[in-house]
Amino acid sequence: MKLNFLTTSIVVLVAGFAFSCGGGEKAAESNTEETASVEAAPVEVSLEDKYKDDPVYIKGLEKVKGSDCTGCHQIERKLIGPAYADVAAKYENTEANVAMLAQKVIAGGVGVWGEIPMAAHPNLTEEDASDMVRYILLLRK
User: Fold this and answer.
1) Residues 64 and 94 in one domain
2) Distance CA 92, CA 94 (A)
3) Are residue 96 and residue 52 in the same domain, yes or no?
4) How many CB atoms lie within 10 A of CB 20?
């Protein structure tokens, strides 16, 4: 009986040792595969990071930050007015659209994005408004 108990104990001990040490290779391989798949996933770059070195972006952003636009608009989130990225998605980046939207910024308006009116900005020059619109139209998602 003692031999049976001793043999059984050794077998259990060896099996436990083999299980605890032998499974590590597969676990390490699995973790490496999981890490590789996480690293392989594309990193989404923010619109701000995407265009931070673009001169049109820099000039337009400077003018937008110097205005009251950020009280109603954000880049990727609707506040009172639409997000800049939503405006960029709606309008193709053409000179005709830049001119039309620059006039809307200067004159103000209501109805395109809902019933809340956009305030007029009569003190903006057409050049400044156009620079701001070019910046906004870059922000297409």
Assistant:
1) yes
2) 6
3) yes
4) 9
pTM higher than the cut 0.85? no
Rounded Cα–Cα distance for residues 33 and 130 (Å): 50
Domain encompassing residue 108: 47-138
What is the overall mean pLDDT for the chain? 80
Closest to 105 (Cα-Cα) out of 117, 89, 93: 117
With contact defined as beta carbons under 8 Å apart, do 132 and 70 qualify? no
Q: For the chain, what is the domain count?
A: 2
Question: Which conformational region is residue 114 in: left (phi greater than 0), alpha (psi within -120 to 50 degrees), or beta?
Answer: left
Is the domain of 75 the same as that of 17?
no
Give residue-wise pLDDT tens across range 15-41. Answer: 444 444 554 445 445 455 555 555 666
